[in-house]
Amino acid sequence: MAGRESGAAVVRCAGRIGVVASVAMNLAWLAMYIRRRYFTARRSDGGAEADVVEAGKGKPPVTPDSVVNLDHGDPTMYEEFWRATGDCATIVIPGWQTMSYFSDLSGVCWFVEPGFEHQVRRLHRLVGNAMVDGYHLLVGTGSTQLFQAALYALSPAEDGSPINVVSPAPYYSSYPSVTNFLNSALYRWGGDANTFDGDTCIELVCSPNNPDGGIRKAVIKSKSSKAIHDFAYYWPQYTPITEAASHDIMLFTVSKCTGHAGTRLGWALVKDKEVAQKMIKFIELNTIGVSKDSQLRAAKIIKAVCDGYELSSYGDASRLFHFARHKMAARWNRLRLAVEASGIFTLPDELPGHCSFSNDTIISNPPFAWLRYKKDDVEDLEGFLREQKIITRGGTRFGVDGKVVRVSMVDTDEAFDVFVNRLVSLK
Ligand SMILES: *[C@@H]1O[C@H](CO)[C@@H](O)[C@H](O)[C@H]1NC(C)=O
Fold it and tell me: What residues form the membrane-spanning segments (predicted)?
């Protein structure tokens, strides 16, 4: 590829005063060259000390007049916690490390880093939200990849019509999009599980549920049907931990647990070896494994979370779930007051329960507010809020009506403040 060659030449030249941009060099490589020169300029000569690579800034800052985008559940709320923990979650990866494709040729999953697996199992034992003994642990590029791997693994092998994939409405808006995106011959979106009347299906059980925070069990009873449990939000900052779950396929993600959405790491606990092997096959063909760099980073982050609870040398400030629960509870209090003050919205009822992790009765603090408009003059609440420069996701995307929207509760303090203040002013 011509672009690649000219790019390599540019890298070799980086640091010299002038580089004549060849005609063949395209704009993408020019942009990369500028970025590299910037980083090269910042490096110390010895090269031995770790250089902190500057990351992209993410979304633009929020001001009282700006648009607040609470469409995605972007967990930037957690930055405050990780900024305060010093370097206990920092990693340095030398240039020669993590080069091989392979991580663990002795295990079931050849691309899972043993250190990552160890810390994930430790975390589940600490929190008590899922059984890990007797389960195969798979890693994926976010739980979204594992979700697709699970659909592949659970689809019947024999030729025939695609198996239906269902979930009770309101269901996570990505389920239909991801399921139907490639028009697979193996599976297709079958809609609301409550109205499904076929014999066999794959049911997606999301608990606490995205978007409405409800606690869910599988609703499909037929023996030939299979369930995938999406436990992205089954963590003590969002909901009381009431049992160590032990379903056939359980999906988790660092994104909603520690806030590291950009690390793109999820994991699956899978009971059946054959299903696990099919899921591994999918990931092999899809991305030839999962970034080791991300796994090492996630392992360090999860280790810091566990150490925060298990090592006495760590203070209260290093307790992630406590930090996040307090933050979520404070936000939910403010939101409920604002909704009451405005008089035109409703929210789901509070769900109390005994949490085995905190040994306390707590109320749930869902990661999304499922906000409903209760008057008759607006049918499209998403559009109505967009006029107020609040970006949310409308109910029709979740299989229900448009008078309800999903609003992220895990964004920055600034975005949340602006959102609540605007909401209070609506009558
Ligand atoms: C949980 O709390 C109760 C009541 O405060 C207490 O009696 C009990 O010992 C606690 N259990 C654990 C495991 O800490």
Answer: 14-34
